[in-house]
Write a structure and sequence with these properties.
The protein is built from one helix and nine strands. By secondary structure, it is mainly beta. Bound molecules: zinc ion (3 copies). One zinc ion (ZN) binds next to loops.
């Protein structure tokens, strides 16, 4: 015969800074019950997946799609420091050869510059 007499529920919530939406990221449920003469408890911890489907701790919200990203997927635009998820960030090789992440605006700017440079190349010598 088992009688539950108390349940505790603890939720861990983060709030999206732009929309104000709250997202439950973790739920901890503890149930205390009596079994015979003994008082027992069990705790279940449900870790919500990030919208990127990772189980890593959340790191921040993407400014373009509002997605909550984990520490692995979250990053900032190398030009304007806008927070980005892995889906919205466009990766590009920087001049020094490292892979950088750019937001759609900065990526668009970079693409335009490249295009312009390509068009003008036969006529203008660019100094890097
Ligand atoms: Zn995004
Ligand atoms: Zn992730
Ligand atoms: Zn940017």
């Amino acid at each position: 015969m088992r009688e539950e007499y108390r349940t505790e529920c603890e939720t861990n919530v983060v709030e999206n800074p732009w929309t104000g939406h709250r997202i439950v990221i973790d739920v901890t449920e503890t149930t205390h019950y009596v079994e015979g003469e003994a008082l027992r408890s069990y705790t279940t911890r449900i870790q919500g997946a990030r919208r990127c489907a990772c189980l890593k701790p959340p790191a921040g919200f993407c400014a373009e799609c509002d997605m909550l990203s984990c520490v692995d997927c979250y990053g900032r635009c190398a030009e304007c420091a806008k927070p980005l998820c892995s889906k919205c960030g466009r990766t590009q090789k920087s001049r020094s050869g490292e892979t950088i992440r750019l937001c759609s605006e900065c990526y668009g700017d970079a693409a335009r510059k490249r295009l312009l440079r390509g068009l003008l190349k036969p006529f203008v010598e660019f100094q890097e």
